[in-house]
Amino acid sequence: MMRRLGLPLGRVASGCLCLALLGAVTGCSPILDGRTGITRDVAGNLVGLAKACEGEYDGAGIYQDDDPNAQTMVHVAEWSRQNPSAALLTWTLEDEGADAWTTSEPLTASALTSGHTYVLDAFGDLQKWSADELRFTVEDLTAITADTVLVTKTDPKTGASGQAIIPRDQFPASVCTP
What we know:
With about 180 residues, this protein is mainly beta.
């Protein structure tokens, strides 16, 4: 079930509003620390991955973001952890809670539709820490397997970012390298 984020709809919306207000006053934003990715399990189910460098993550979400300049994004799914962690985190996106993750809104097969852009983000400590967001489409997901991960790749010279597909076993080592 998708809904527009509004006030005060959940911890993510409140945290984003607080950070936006804080950023407007102080120029601060969340510390970009870590990486997110999407892979598949051996049965073909979508699996989220997140790894922090210094912070710890206790939440993740997927949002529809067709217009990066818009003030709101459409909330698609959200997961939380009772115990924050900096370890490599994985969770089945279509599950209602597994491996220390819980959700009131798991990703449903009909939630992701062609023609839209989505964002996967992981965050922690009331949005103090945030992973490098992964922007993706349904079409991007067709290229990944249980052995590969869709990630954000940023060109160190230009700062331009896009997607890349890397081997799954290289994901942990790719997180905190420049």
